[in-house]
Amino acid sequence: MPLVDMPLKELKKYRGTNPKPEDFDEYWDSSLREMRSINPKPELVLSDFKTPFAECYDLYYTGIGGARIHAKLVKPRNVFEPCPAELVFHGYSGRSPEWGGLLAMAASGFVSVAMDCRGQAGESEDVGHHKGNTLNGHIIRGLEDNNPKRLLFRDIFLDTAELAGIVMKLDFVDEKRVVARGGSQGGALTLACASLEPKIKLAFATYPFLCDYKRVWEMDMAERAYAELKRYFRNFDPKHEREDLIFTKLGYIDVQFLVPRIKAKVKMVTGLMDDVCPPSTQFAAFNKMLCEKESIIYPDFGHEDLPGEWENDYYMWVLNEFNIEL
After folding, report:
1. Three-state secondary structure readout of 94-107
2. What does pTM read for this prediction?
């Protein structure tokens, strides 16, 4: 079959190209301490959207930098014991699913919570004040700052972990049965969330974004989702005099270096024809995971809807893992 990347045999051995900052672990440990020092002030506001079997809420909480973050929360009605929960993360530039997209899990007895990424299409705040590019470029947002803690995706990764902690403390959630899921950017945020919140039980990441930036560059695939890498070099380093420094700095928000922290059981779904998030970049993360894990391959598919993925790969797996009878 045709390939856009390495053969599968090589993918299973690939360990990544992007450089890792020497102080990576210290960077994230101190970032987590900063997050935990914040009073998130969570607020649940009953939505105007109604269903006969579930209650729908807007959840607001305060994240890094004082940004007020928004998520949709759906919980089953008339349930008197703590429920399992899922955390849902959306694709790049998008927003949380419509309420209807969360109802299947609520009908199955789950609390379903979907976060809006700050600065994208949903209701979460982007408090900004970053030096340099702020147009169509969240990967490169903050790269021109001397302090790597100004990288925007650091804040977004922390928003996912803070959300997980808030949801786990809700009296109607069983903190021992929480799953994170998402595709593309949502897949990256799923892995980041499970890395930064070790109580996450399951993680289901579909063709995760935000992995192995230098590999994307060397494959000449800095297009579409990764186009801002090319834009950054053209605007800020046209001779590539700082190329090593730039990719090392991006290493702070490279998911492949976070995933060794994951304690959850992980499933990662990859289409071998993916020319948006190349398979090798995904496997750079998968191969560094130290947890129980499984790779699911769709050989003829790219960055697109995958037949049976939600019903079979995700839904039935989660019900089985959480001992929910059919």
Report:
1. CCCCCHHHHHHHHH
2. 0.97
